Amino acid sequence: MSALEIALRTGDAAKKTIWRSRHALDSARSLPPRRSGPVIFATPLSRLATIPPDEASARRLVAAAEEVMGGRWTIFGRTRADMTPVPDWFRDADTDFSASRHDYSFDIDWRAGAPDRDVKRVWELSRHHHLTLLAAAYALTGDNRYAERIGEQLQSWWQANPFLSGIHWTMGIEVGMRLIAWVWIRRLLHSWSEAPALFERNPIFLRQLYGHQLYLARLRSHGSSANNHLLAEATGLFAATCAFRGFSQTDRWRAQALAVLRREIPRQTFGDGANRELATDYHLFVLELTLTALLEGYAAGFPLGRDVWRAAQSMTDALAAWLDCRGKPPRQGDSDDCTALLLDAQDHARVDSLLATGASLFTAAPWWPQPQRAGLRAAFWAALAPEPLALAPRQVTRPALFPEAGIAILRAETRAGDEIWCRCDHGPHGLEPLAAHAHADALSIELRIGGVEILTDPGTGCYQAEPAWRDYFRSTRAHNSLELDGQDQSVAGGMFLWLKPAKSRLVAVSGLDSGPVAEWRAMHDGYRRLPARASHERMVRLDRAEPGLTIVDRLALAKSGVCRLAFHFGPAVEVALDDASARLHWSAGASRRAAQIELPAGLAWSLWRGSVDPPIGWYSAGFGRRQPTWSLLGEGGVEGAAEFVTRVAFDGNPAADSSAAVTAARLTSSTSHR
């Protein structure tokens, strides 16, 4: 840490010591808001009538709201059934783990995890996404049941969580996320006669609102932690101070949050539009935060300025350019299913919502895919939006190379008409200095055929709850890359810290936009620290004329070593291995597809699925979830200069393959095997 960061953290520690004196079970009553006048809600939703009530998205939303009213809500793939009339805000209903309710928040060690003790499942409920969903359902239907349930649950939360008491005050990002939710709940309940009594005329809410804003104004992420957490904190404070006026510090706190957003959003965005954390899910999250802040500022008369507007436009353009034919973005880096504001059913197409909102703000570039399900969040956001305005120059055609982010997208088409989509990674390790959400995935690739994940990124699995699984899912072995001497390319120093990140660089690229061949070549220095002093270079060549993919891995070593080359397959793919050849099968609607991989000679190849010791053959579709999938692992000794060539042939005829090979693959042990 720098001297400045040490000084700032020392100051934070002093504030926490002083605040300890404020902490008591009755601290909600000991924190009187300092007001300059009555608190008012200043930014109602003015153009709600533009949202059609009979839209398919509205029907899905109302159905989801009825699930919540019936007591059911899904968190990280697990459904709680205890949501009515009010949930236990401190309990993970799936495991019966209960987090601290009354301890001074800064005494709580939230990092202490175990498989049955994941604090994120407790935090997630108190982001109040289920209540913004109910509020959206009320705004569409006018059904008072939704508003009354919201009031009941918010009163419960406010009473149970006095200032600085318990787990929900330990992290600034959680405080900021709640403020965003409360602003939108109040906005969507604007026509409910009891809304002012629940919010701006409610002393309990005013203490909570004041305490949340005071927390974010006095304590914020900085230095090595100034990533998406800082943006969420600043967006929450900005949204609340734009929407609720009347505290004596409102103007000062709003100006403080505005300054952070104006500085940090462009700083955390590459010039080519990618978020600097280089984790796709966090790119989406930061884009959501940015759009939320832009719209709150516009509605309240406090614009964020051209630089932020330009960053939001470039982030949306980058997202549109990355998508495959099914509208799915890459799977790169960490993902914890984070969303800034939920106003649709949970299964709604999040990317479509962002593209639709981008189109209403910046106009869509001519090469953007057409959103299939724009959703209600896009419609609600559009009701706050100004006229579309494009500030940054737009590319005439879809970009395929993102030089600062180190992302290259190779595209072609099989003879069957399926899109071939391949992402190649040669970018920085992540947002310095922590690179908290990065994986050891330099030079890794993803391959999709017709939107089906063939060679896939494993996902995240978990964070602090299960350290061994955290280590696996971000390891080099878990990615489609090459491991040397049992070591990751980058050296981790903790669950959210990398001490020695590998540095990658692009060597050459050609044919990304057109021509018979697209080719990408890059290298990294992550193994120079090892006794072998090795360099790793990878070339990926996509042949469009005779559809096929060639991957060439080259190692240059000063001493002999042992390498492992891994290929990981998506959940839809069946794999059968025969010596150094693998047959792949998957479904494309009612049709079957096949491909063949000719694996490099000189390595001993084995097929794995759902192995625990060692962990390999796993896929995480979302945070807190994992499922067995097929993985190929080639292992062998290397010395001097070594080259490994892998060839993937598409357009195989499934009927010509032996069904016995597929059957054998399905019957292989689901624990570990070779």
Topology of this protein?
Layout: H1 3-19, E1 35-41, H2 56-69, E2 73-75, E3 78-80, E4 91-92, E5 97-98, H3 119-125, H4 129-141, H5 144-160, H6 172-188, H7 195-198, H8 203-218, H9 228-243, E6 244-247, H10 250-267, H11 280-300, H12 306-322, H13 350-362, H14 375-382, E7 401-402, E8 407-413, E9 419-425, E10 445-449, E11 452-455, H15 467-473, E12 482-484, E13 491-494, E14 497-500, E15 504-510, E16 517-524, E17 535-543, E18 548-556, E19 561-568, E20 574-578, E21 581-588, E22 591-598, E23 604-609, E24 611-612, E25 615-616, E26 618-619, E27 627-628, E28 630-638, E29 641-652, H16 659-667
Antiparallel strand pairs: 1-6, 2-3, 4-5, 7-8, 8-9, 9-10, 10-11, 12-19, 13-14, 15-16, 16-17, 17-18, 18-29, 19-28, 20-21, 21-22, 22-29, 23-28, 24-25, 26-27
Briefly summarize what is shown:
The chain is α+β, with helices and mostly antiparallel strands and 674 residues long. It contains 16 helices and 29 strands.
